[in-house]
Amino acid sequence: MKETYILGIETSCDETAAAIVKNGREILSNVVQSQISLHQKFGGVVPEVASRKHIETIAAVVEEAFAKAGLAYRSIDAVAVTNRPGLIGALLVGLSFAKALAYALNKPIIAINHLHGHIYANFLENPEIEFPCVCLVVSGGHTSLVYMPSHQDYQLIGETRDDAAGEAFDKVARFLGLSYPGGPAVEKAAREGTPGVNKLPRIYLDREDFEFSFSGLKTAVMNQWRKLEKLGLADVNDMAAEFQQALVEVLAEKTIRAAQKYQVKTVLMAGGVAANSLLRSTLKEKAAEKQLKVVYPPLSLCTDNAAMIAGRAYIQYMNQDFASLELNAYPGLLSL
Amino acid sequence: MELIVKTEEDMLGLGKTLASVLKSGDVVCLHGVLGAGKTTLARGVARGKGYQQRVTSPTFTLMNIYPAQDPIYHFDFYRLGCGDLTDLGLEDYLEKDGICLIEWPEIGADSIPLEAMHIYIGLTDEDYDRERLVSIKATGESYCRKIKELEQIVDTGC
Question: Which of A11, A40, A41, A49 is the best residue to mutate to test the B interface, defined by the most B CB atoms within 10 Å of its own CB?
């Protein structure tokens, strides 16, 4: 059988990334140029800065992906690129580059939904995952539960009504004076603190559906913090620990319930918040009680990268799901 | 105008009423601290314009689009932290075919039209459990007229 080499390009947010993946499984190269240090001083992503940095680095990042893979440009079979969702200016940099390259090499172009890429990250190192599965997608912009009968069929069964989990981490971190990105900062502080010293709500845990809400949790943190400050009892580590605990409990419990309702044997995780070690361990514990298998990508594939894009593209390549050079970028969410 | 909003439900209701005086081309800036209720008010406006689907925080995406009776462009400048908004393509949306709702407008103040409606949502005694004090202000004649209209139909709770 002929081997298939796909170049993936990802520029939807912070990272300028390019990767080459063989047969949707084997990562030959995975180059990520992170802009986080640039954004840190602003406490978040600055789109204008993000786009400019993407433009400055994209060519070098793609070149490095080829060099590391030891492949010539013409030896790839397709160019895959994230075209939604994301920051429009940032997406367009990757998209334009991908189009030009595909045109010059006379190779097909494959449009990838960033979320499909995150979900696919699970399959890069675990080829034996059996369908159907349920995947918890948790990142700065998303908190969703997805039921997956197959690679061709991703069904959204629940998502956040207001803030995403990663957004809650970022906002609470900023409020408590911790650093950006908020996830690792809260996790670090939480390790020094004790959950339960402060009591925060487990929002929507009592509901049977798979909806989430984290806006109220964020408000509860701020409210309690203000009151504790007045009493001189505010301890950032204890608050971080309880916040993380409240958020993780809801995510893990609802994911397990979804797995049971949809009668799947395997639970997947995707997105930057899937790197949170309390979420990983809690989900594993709860899954073990129900004889469920939990799979999550390695840390390097949880955050934005292009290997997941090139990997997912293999599924679409096999289905001849190609885009035209008229392909556009779409910032909007809500599309699975 | 000033009013007191006691519950989240009332904030949604205020948004719905607000929607009745807004039309395409209007720009509404939503001011207030984290958790004050800006997204809830925006959700109310979307509901008032017949949009029943999800209205979530645009913090991460920077902009959400709701295909309501009048299209609604829901912006959030929270993460921007500094001036230049050119990459958002803001000028393609402001005062065009839809209603622009902007959270954290002070961060992109230079890009916001001089004539606009400004809504300030404040906490009572810094307590998130208590009622919100909402102050609606306007610059420009057409927005001042909208506030007069609102004064007729809004229960100020004061």
Answer: A49
- Which amino acid, residue B28? V
Check pLDDT > 70 for residue B79. Answer: yes
Q: Cα angle at A324 between A323 and A330, to 5 degrees?
A: 65
Q: Which residue segments constitute the domains of chain B, with CATH numbers given?
A: 2-153 (3.40.50.300)
Confidence grade of residue A19 (pLDDT, cut at 50, 70, 90): very high
Q: Mean of the pLDDT values across residues A95-104?
A: 98
Supply the pTM of this predicted model: 0.85
| Model confidence pLDDT, tens digit, residues A36-89 | 665 565 555 555 566 778 898 999 999 999 999 999 999 999 999 999 988 878
The answer to whether the Cβ–Cβ distance between B34 and A160 falls below 8 Å is: no
ipTM above 0.90, yes or no: no
Each residue's pLDDT tens digit, A194-234? 999 999 999 999 999 999 999 999 999 999 999 999 999 99
Could you identify the residue written with the tokens 């997947």? A268
Using CA atoms, how far residue A160 sits from A61, A79, A203, B37, in Å, is 34, 32, 11, 16
Q: Is the Cβ pair B56, A90 closer than 8 Å?
A: no
Name the class of domain A131-264. alpha beta
Chains A & B: contacts with CB separation below 8 Å? 93
Q: How many residues does chain B have?
A: 158
CB contact under 8 A, A47 and B60: no
Domain boundaries, chain A: 5-119+302-318, 131-264
Domain pair A5-119+302-318 / A131-264, same fold: yes
Longest distance between any two alpha carbons in chain A, whole Å: 70
Buried/exposed code over A50-68 (b: 16+ C-beta within 10 A; e: otherwise): bbbbbbebbeebbeebbeb
Whether A51 has its CB under 8 Å from any CB of chain B: the answer is yes
CATH superfamily of A5-119+302-318: ATPase, nucleotide binding domain (3.30.420.40)
- Contact between chains at B80 and A222 (C-beta distance less than 8 A): no
C-alpha distance from A304 to closest chain B C-alpha (Å): 14
Q: Give contacts of B61 with chain A, Cβ < 8 Å.
A: 85, 87, 141, 331-333
- Residues of A whose CB is below 8 A from B11: none
Place of tokens 């885009």: A323
Confirm or reject contact between A50 and chain B (CB < 8 A): yes
